[in-house]
Specification:
Elements: H1 2-19, E1 21-29, E2 40-49, E3 52-57, H2 58-76, E4 95-99, E5 105-111, E6 114-119, E7 127-135, E8 138-147, E9 150-157, E10 175-181, E11 186-195, H3 196-207, E12 226-229, H4 231-243, H5 247-254, E13 262-264, E14 267-269, H6 272-289
Parallel strand pairs: 6-12
Antiparallel strand pairs: 1-2, 1-11, 2-3, 3-4, 4-5, 5-6, 7-8, 8-9, 9-10, 10-11, 13-14
């Protein structure tokens, strides 16, 4: 009887993987080290299928899907007059893809106008501890790891047939349901799970998009072709951007084939030098205020 139940459990697990499962997390984070007591919140999806998983922001997904549906409809109608004003794209622009069974992990993110895919080069070394507790109806066990410039504590459950988790995290004998760094400024909490047949039906009604199921690798990153880089190359790109965040825009403007107009305090500015100064000031302030990246080791 026990053998029959074990085989049945394996069949259910295999079926679950074939259909695909969406794990839903609440991501809480402080974008600035100066605002540790003011955490922001974003709902995140971990879409798991047979060959891999994708981790990304729900709001970014809704925003991109809505935009995609708008342009598709306009093109089908033969319209050449596009007036899409955009919407709330959320607070999280990165996404992470993992392939199974090798667990190659790739971060998809942007710096300025450039889009990058950064393959993870540092495996996560977990220390599994005997501590246990309940997260909802699930029994979870504690594990710790140092990764990406932070010390992390995870709680994983073997009630799920996945060795995966939020962001780049994986490799425990179960699904990570809770994850928090030692500073308390980065955390993920399990909210629930759904099969993809439920998910697609809801998304078609709410978004009006034909998109459903597993997202593409570049999902969660604004338009543009991704550049594959190593982690060291990415760090170099980040340092260059911090030093001169309008370098690419300056080069384009110097060619004379593009004009920019900014509205600054109600005043329309068209002079290229003034536009660049305003853009540089704005972007440097953004860099200064967004100084608590989830993986600080990538952003020296």
């Amino acid at each position: 009887m026990k053998k029959t139940l074990f085989i049945l459990s394996l069949l259910i697990s295999a079926l679950s993987l074939a259909q695909g499962t969406r794990i839903i997390y609440e991501y809480k984070f402080a974008s600035s080290l100066e605002k540790k007591d003011s955490l922001e919140t974003e709902m995140m999806y971990l879409d798991i299928k047979k060959n891999g998983s994708e981790f990304y922001s729900r709001q970014k997904f809704v925003s991109d899907s809505t935009r995609e549906a708008y342009f598709k409809k306009q093109i089908q109608m033969g319209s050449t007059n596009f007036n899409y004003r955009g919407g709330n794209a959320g607070k999280v622009g990165f996404s992470v893809s993992k392939s199974y069974p090798d667990f190659a992990v790739v971060l998809h993110t942007g710096i300025g106008n450039s889009r990058f895919s950064v393959k993870n080069e540092n495996p996560i070394v977990w220390k599994i501890l005997p501590d246990k507790k309940k997260v909802g109806q699930f029994e979870v066990q504690k594990a710790t790891a140092d990764f990406g410039g932070r010390s992390w504590t995870a709680w994983f459950s073997q009630d799920f047939p996945f060795q995966d988790g939020p962001y780049k995290f994986y490799g425990l004998p179960g699904l990570i349901l809770e994850l928090e760094d030692a500073t308390g400024t980065q955390s993920f909490k399990f909210l629930g799970s759904k099969k993809f047949d439920e998910v697609v039906k809801i998304e078609k009604e709410d978004i009006g998009s034909t998109r459903g199921g597993m997202v593409v690798k570049t999902f969660g990153v604004p338009g543009g072709k991704e550049i594959e880089v190593t982690e060291d190359q990415f760090r170099k790109q980040w340092k260059e951007y911090k030093n001169d965040p309008v370098k690419d825009t300056r080069q384009i403007l110097s060619q004379g084939n593009m004009k920019l107009t900014l509205n600054i305090d109600g005043k329309t500015v068209t002079d290229p030098s003034e536009v660049l100064r305003a853009m540089e000031k704005n972007q440097k302030e953004e860099i200064k205020n967004n100084n608590n990246k989830i993986e600080p080791a990538l952003y020296p």
